[in-house]
Amino acid sequence: MQNHLAALNHGVMDRAPALYTIRIHGHLGTTMLSAFPAMASQRQGAETVLTGLLDRSALYGVLAEIEALGLDLVEVRQEFREA
Amino acid sequence: MTVAPATPRLIDRDDLLAALDRAAERKVTILSAPAGSGKTSLLRAWADGPGQPHRLAVVQVQRDQQDAQLFWLALLGAVRQASGTTSRAELPAATPDFNGQAMVDRVLSELAEHGGRVILVIDDLHELNSPEALAQLTRLLTNLPPHVHAVLATRRDLRLRLNQLRLAGELAEIRAADLRFTERETRELLQASGIALSEAGAALLQQRTEGWAAGLRLAAISLAGHPDPERFVAEFSGSNRTVAEYLITEMLERQPDHVQDLLLRTCLLDRVNGELADLLTGRPGSERILLELEDANAFVVSLDPERTWFRYHHLFGDLLRLELRRTLPEEVLALHRRAAEWFTQQGQVVDAIRHTQAAGDWPAAARLLADHSFSLMLDGQTQTIQALLRAFPPGAHADHPELALVRATVDVVQGRLAEAAAQLAVAESHVQTAPADRRRRLQVAIASLKLSLARRRGHLESVTEQVGFLAAPVTGQSGEDIALGNDLRAVALYNLGTVETWSPLGLEDAERHLQGGAVLAREIGRPYLEVSCLAQLGFASRIHSLATARRRCQEAITLADRHGWDAEPIIAPALVTLTGLMILMGDFGEGERWLHRAGQAVQTDTGPDIRQLLHMAAGMLHAGRGRHREAFEEFTAAERLQSQLAGSHTLASEVTGWALAAQARLGMVSEARATLAGLADEQANSGEIRNACAVICRAEGDPARALGALAGVLDGTAPVIGDVTVVEAQLLAGLAHRELGDQRAANQAAERALGLAEPDRLVLPFVMTGCRELLEALPRHETAHAALLTDILDVVHGSSLTAKDQSTLPQGEALSPSELRVLRYLPTNMSRPEIASELSVSVNTVNTHIRNIYAKLQARDRSSAVQRARELRLLSAGLTR
Question: Least crowded by CB within 10 Å, which of B105, B452, B595, B715?
Fold first, then answer.
C-alpha cells in the first residue's frame, strides 16, 4: 500500500514538507496513536486532531495507515508551507 | 482455556443478498467499503446461499501482491476449480517469462469453454499492487463471456478503467452505507450469538458502531462472556475512543495472558502455524489456541482445509502490531529474526528474506537473496525478486555488491541484455572479496548468467569459455549447495545445447547436452527447464532425423500443455520445428495453423534465432502454395535476421538457397545470379546453394549447366543439411534431363527422389521445384512408391493434404501393422492372390486382413477403402509410425 502510493509520486518533484492537520472521528488511544509517531495529537470534542510536518510521501503514508486501521477520516488540511 | 464461550454467528442479511442477486444480472459488481465492513462474510453467505445455480471461483489477493504472475495463477486455479476441469491439466506453474496477455486470453477461453454460469470473486483487490496486473484485469472484466459474472471486493475504489461497462449499465456497486448493520440486524446478530441485551442496549450498540460489521463482531465476542452486557454497552457508548481500538483492547484484555502473548508475538507474520507460533512464544500448544480462536470467530482464519496455517484479519493484525511495538518494542527485531531462521530452515526463502529485511539485517538479506535469486527466477518469481530488491533502503546496492548479481538475473530474464552485462561486471569485480565458502557459488552463478546472456546473443565463443568452469561441481556439502549446483548445471546444459544447435559443428554435442539437461531437470523437479530442453532438442534433431524431431517436438508440446505453457516462448522451438515438418510433408493447412500458434508463442520474445525460423516456415508455406513473391519476402526476412546472430548457423545455406530459388522463380534471374556470384566459396559449395544455382541455370535456359551444378550434391561430395536437399537435387536433375530430352534419366532421378522422400514423406521439394510433369510422365508400374506419388500429385494439383492421422480413428480401430502392409497394395491394380504372393502369405490371410480393413475404415469396397485410407494418410509409410 505505502509502496504503491509512494510509487505514484515518482517523477513529481517532492515539494518541501508542509504542516498538515488531520482530523479523525473518535479518540485515538495509545495503541492507535503509535501508528503516527511523526504527528502530535490533541483531542477536540469527540475528535482527534493530528498535526505534523509531512512531505508528500509521508502524507500518503499517514493516509494509508488511517485506511488500514479503519479510522473515520473527517478532514485533511495543509496549514502553511515552509519556504 | 477460554477464548469466548459462545461463537458469534453470521446472520442472514437478506436485503444485501437480494442486492447481490440483482447485481449479478450485470457483468461486474464492485463491493467497495473500508476494512471490517463485512464484505468477505457477505460474499461467503451469498455463495453458500440456497438455490445458487452457479459455480463460484474465489481468489483471495495476497497482502501487498506485487507479482502479476502469482495473482493470475491464483485466478486461473480458482477458475479451473470452479469449472471442475482440474483433471484436464495440472495447475500451470509459474515461469520465468510470464506472458500476461496470453494468460488473460487463456482465462477467457477457459471461461467461455466451460459454458455454465460462473461467478468470479476477487477479494481484497486493493492489495494488488501491480499496475500491469490491474490493466490485464481490466481487459478480462470488459471481455467476460455473458454467462460469467465478476464480483470485486476492495477497501477503496481502484483505478480499473471500467467506464465502458458503467456506461453500458453492466456495473453494479455496493458501498459502505449499504453494508451497515441496521438495528434489526444488530439484534439478530446478538441473538444468534446468544447474547441477551435490551432493545435499547442493542440500539445504542448499533449507533456507537454505526453498524460497522467488525465493531459489532468484536462487541459480540466481548459481550458473550460478560457478566453485565448492559453495562458494557453503556461504557462503550460513553467512551470517545475509536470503535476498533476500544473493542480490540477489550477483547484482548479478556483473553488469558498466554493467548494475548501468542497473538502479539505472531502478529508480525503474514501467516502462522502451530510450530512457528510455539517457537515465537517459547511455549507449546499454540495450534490448539489458534484453532479455538478461529472457532470463536475471533478474527483468526485458517488458510488451508487441514487448518494448519492461519492468518489474522487485516485490521486486527494491524492493531496487534501497533500493540506489540508499544508494549514489547525490544522484542520486534528478535521476533523477525527468529521467524526468518525458521523460514530459512523450511526452505521458504521469500518469507525468510522478508523477515530478515524487517529485522534490519540488510547484509544477511542481501546474501540470502543473492544465493536464491537463481532458483527463485527458475520458479518464475522474478517480480517477487524485484519487490524484494525494492524493499532494500536507498543506497543498499552500493553497500551490498551481491545485489548486482540479483539485478543481473532479473535483467537477463526480462531481456535487458546490456544492463545485465553491466550488473554482471559489477558482480564479478566483487566476487573476489566474498568469503571463500561463498565465492565458488557466486562464481558459478555468474558463469551461468553469462552463459544465458551469450545464448540470448548467439555468441558461441563466449559460451565455450564458461563451460569448462561449470563442468566442475559446486563445492559444499549442504543440500542447498547441491540443489543450486543442479539448477545451475541444468540451466548451463540448456544454454550450451541451445547455442550449439545453431552452430554447424555443434549439433551432436547439442543433442547430448540438451538430453542431459532434460534428464537432470526432470530429476530435480524443474519442469520448466525440462520443457525448455526438450523443445530445443526437437529442433536440434531436425537435421539428423525428421521422424525423431517430430516425436520429440510432440513430446515437448504435450509436456508444455500439461503445465499450461502452450503459449510460452520456451515451447516455440518445438512449435516452429513441427510447423516446418508439417509443411515439408505437404500438409499446408495444418502447417498454417501451427505457424499461427508458434507466432503467438514468440510474442514476448524477440530473439532473432526463433523469429528467423518462423520466417523460414512461412516462406516454405508460400513456396509450397506457389506464391513465390511472398516466399521470397519471408526467406529474405529470415536472411536479414541471420545477420543479427553471431557466427553462421546450421540452416544458413538453406535460407539463402531458398531465397535465391524463389527470386529466380519470380523472374528476377539476373538479380539472383548476381547475389549468387557474391557468395563466399565455402557457402557456394554447399548442396543448398548448388540447388539454387541449378534453379537459376534452368531459368536462364541452360539445363546442362544446371546438371553440372547438381553433380556434387548427387554424388555426395557437397555438404548438405539433410535429405531434403538431396531430394530437391534429384528433382532438379530430373527436370534438367527432361529438358535435355533424356526421359529415361529423368524417370530414374524422379524415382530416386521418391525413394529418398518416402521414409519422411518429404512432399514439399516436389511442389517447390514444380515437378508435376516430371511426375506425371513417370509410368506407374515403374515406381515402387505409387502411394506417395499419388499423394504428391494431389498436393501438386493444389489440394493440401488434410491432416488426420490414425489417431482420429475410433478407439480400438487402429490398423495392425500387417493390415497396413496389405492396405498399401489396395490402390494398385494387383489382385488379392498377387498381393498374397508379394507379401508371402496365403490368400486367406489377405482376405481376412482386407475384411478387417474395410470394417475399421467403414468402407464398402476397395475404392472407398482407398479413399478413406488416403484421407487418413495411411497409404505411405509416414512419420506417424
Answer: B715
